Amino acid sequence: MPRVVDHDARRRDIAAALLAVAARDGHEGVNSRAVARELGVAVGSLWHYFDGFDDVIRAAAAEVTRRTEERIRAATEGLRGVARLDAIMREVLPVDATTRTEAHIVVGFWGRLASLAPAEDASAATLPLWRTETAEALAQAVEDGELRPDAPLDDLLALLRAITYGQQIVEVAEPADAAAHLRVLTAILDPWRA
Questions:
Q1: Are 119 and 51 spatial neighbours (Cβ–Cβ below 8 Å)?
Q2: Domain with 173 in it: what CATH number?
Q3: Is residue 2 part of a domain?
Q4: Per-residue pLDDT, 50
Q5: Which tens digit of pLDDT belongs to each residue from 32-64?
Q6: Total number of domains constituting the chain
């Protein structure tokens, strides 16, 4: 009887293997042989699940997003407003071992992802949950009187998105401690605190 394989789970396993190789060996160590070796399979078996290595890169970027979204859901449970916003940002800013490693991985992916032809699932590498959760947290902060009623929420959301990417680049180029990354968040919010 043929073995039943969960293709989505296998694709996630392959993407996770690529992430493990990138975290351990850096992007220069990421190739199909290294990913297959990490999984303990033959290189050819990767191509049962992907059309090429660029597809594996896309899947790995989506896996980082999936993991981040999972952490955001857990970290924000029961929180509102500024406390919720702080919890969200601590899952994307490079403030601990997990988020620092992810910063190095995702910044390394950006150049490669930008050079790839667009794909139907290209938006998978963005953080739609981050955007929704952050917008809701900002609105709650105004409702709860933590931020001023005239706070420009759309502009603050855009700034917060920019610093999530910017601080990841800073971490890769000029590593900083968690407090330095969090001070940028504070500088954005402080002028609008009630």
A1: no
A2: 1.10.357.10
A3: no
A4: 87
A5: 899 889 988 888 888 888 888 888 888 888 888
A6: 1
CB 63 within 8 A of CB 19: yes
Cα 33 from Cα 41, distance rounded (Å) = 9
Residue 2's pLDDT is what?
Answer: 57
Instruction: Tell me the H-state helices in the chain.
Output: 7-25, 32-39, 53-76, 81-90, 97-115, 128-143, 153-173, 178-189
Residue 157: which domain range? 7-192
Average pLDDT over residues 7-18: 88
Tokens of 79: 């929180």
Tell me the three state secondary structure of residue 193: strand
For 118, the token pair is 């667009």
Q: Which amino acid is at 12?
A: R
Q: How many CB atoms sit inside 10 A of residue 98's CB?
A: 14
pTM above 0.90, yes or no: no
